Amino acid sequence: MSDIKRTMPVYEPAEGMQTAPAFTPPAPKKSGWGTKLLVIILIIVVVLVGLFLLSKYTSWNILNVNKGPSSSGWQAVFLSNGQVYFGKVIKETNSTVVLKDIYYLQVAQSPQPATEGQQAQQNLSLVKLGNELHGPRDEMKINRDHVLFTEDLKSDSRVVDAIVRYLEEGQ
């Protein structure tokens, strides 16, 4: 077989004739659903992150709505100086813990001197904040740097029982 080179003839328009514009296929139509879905997902993520940050850095806590059946609503707040306060935490921020309905333990030494080999007896009593000489209000703003930890007290705790008895006697 022989090598035959075929070429297509090129037609040029005659003088004065107009040529048709080149054919360009139409652009595919975009429905816009992909873009709309991306915007909706982005808005949902921003709202969720905002709620999380609001919950974490303010006293509004959406993550711990239900404290469970064993919680009495009373907390123990342990401080770095060894003092423990019992009450209701009403607000927490980055810098403070606000406690209301406050009680603390007071150690009273036995008036009898201990004999040799015996330890002096210590009596613990639960004291309601507010009856001290300086007359503080029953609310305490505690610097968070001094809070070691807090604990929720059970309904059957001895401290909660003592608080309930105090409240019943006082009313």
Keywords:
single chain; 171 residues; alpha+beta; SH3 type barrels; 2 domains; 6-stranded antiparallel β-sheet; 2 helices; transmembrane; transmembrane helix; membrane
How is this structure best described in words?
Keywords: Membrane, Transmembrane, Transmembrane helix. The chain crosses the membrane at residues 33-54. The chain has 171 residues and is α+β, with helices and mostly antiparallel strands. It has 2 domains: 31-65; 71-111 and 122-170, SH3 type barrels. It is 22% helix and 30% strand. It has 2 helices and 6 strands; from the N terminus they run H-E-E-E-E-E-E-H. Strands 1, 2, 3, 4, 5 and 6 form a 6-stranded antiparallel sheet that branches. Strand 2 (84-92) and strand 3 form a beta hairpin. The N and C termini lie far apart (120 Å).
- Unreliable runs, pLDDT <50, ≥5 residues? 65-70
CATH topology of the largest domain: SH3 type barrels
Question: What sequence of helices (H) and strands (E) makes up the elements?
Answer: HEEEEEEH
Number of strands: 6
What's the domain count?
2
Distance between the termini: 120 Å
Number of helices: 2
- Main beta sheet strand tally, sense and closure: 6 strands, antiparallel
**What's the average pLDDT?**
78
Please give the CATH architecture of the largest domain: Roll
Judged by helices, strands and strand pairing, the structural class is alpha+beta
Please state the overall shape, judged from the principal axes of the Cα atoms: rod-shaped
